[in-house]
Amino acid sequence: MEKKICSYETLFAVSGNLGEEDSKALIEKFVTLINDNASDVEVNEWGKRRFAYPINYVTEGYYVLVSYKSEPSFPLELDRVFGITEGVLRYMTTTKCEKAAKSEAVAEETVEANEAEA
Description:
Number of strands: 4
CATH superfamily: Ribosomal protein S6/Translation elongation factor EF1B
Strand order of the largest sheet: 2-3-1-4
Structural class: alpha+beta
Shape: elongated
Number of helices: 3
Low-confidence stretches: none
CATH architecture: 2-Layer Sandwich
CATH class: Alpha Beta
Order of helices and strands: EHEEHEH
Mean pLDDT: 84
Number of domains: 1
CATH topology: Alpha-Beta Plaits
């Protein structure tokens, strides 16, 4: 059976109450985990930002956005690890460009059909 590879983006926020070394270690832990299980990894650290509202009495967090390609089972495991890790306040993983790829394929088929008719 063929392995399916999809593109994903994961955004997570680490508690601002952690020390700088602890935050960097936590971020490095997740970046390493993603590098070990995915390809085409791009890490974009947004830095420390103020939340719109307090989360568990914490008003600031350090944001990191990671883009990568992996099998569909890996983001589920990543979300599980985020959920059980102290210091991670929020996280979200989205599939990237899934619909765009389908619409491009349909557009190419339409162009080929129109050329065949002409």
